[in-house]
Amino acid sequence: MTFSDQALDQLFRHARTHNAWQPKPVNDAALQELVDMRGSARRWL
């Protein structure tokens, strides 16, 4: 898989760390989806 320069800019070159949390709960299904993606053979996070 190759990434365009625009994607690389967004992900690595111009990315900034998030510095604040929103006062919204995260549901268990969303957390489980992240855990599943993290444990898959193709790691995105």
Structural write-up:
This protein has 45 residues and is an all-alpha fold. It has one domain. Helix content is 47%, strand content 0%. The chain contains two helices and no strands. The protein has helices at residues 5-13, 28-39. The chain starts with a helix and ends in a 6-residue tail after the last helix. Its EC number is 1.1.1.298.
Defining key terms:
2 helices; mainly alpha; 45 residues
Share of helical residues? 40-55%
- Uncertain runs: none
- Tell me the total number of β-strands: 0
For the largest beta-sheet, the strand count, sense and barrel status come to: none
Strand residue percentage: under 5%
Number of helices, where a helix is a run of at least 4 consecutive DSSP H or I residues: 2
SSE string, helix = H, strand = E?
HH
Large-scale geometry = flat
Radius of gyration computed on alpha carbons: 14 Å
Task: Kindly report the average pLDDT value.
Answer: 82
Distance between the termini: 16 Å
Alpha-beta content class: mainly alpha
Count of folded domains:
1
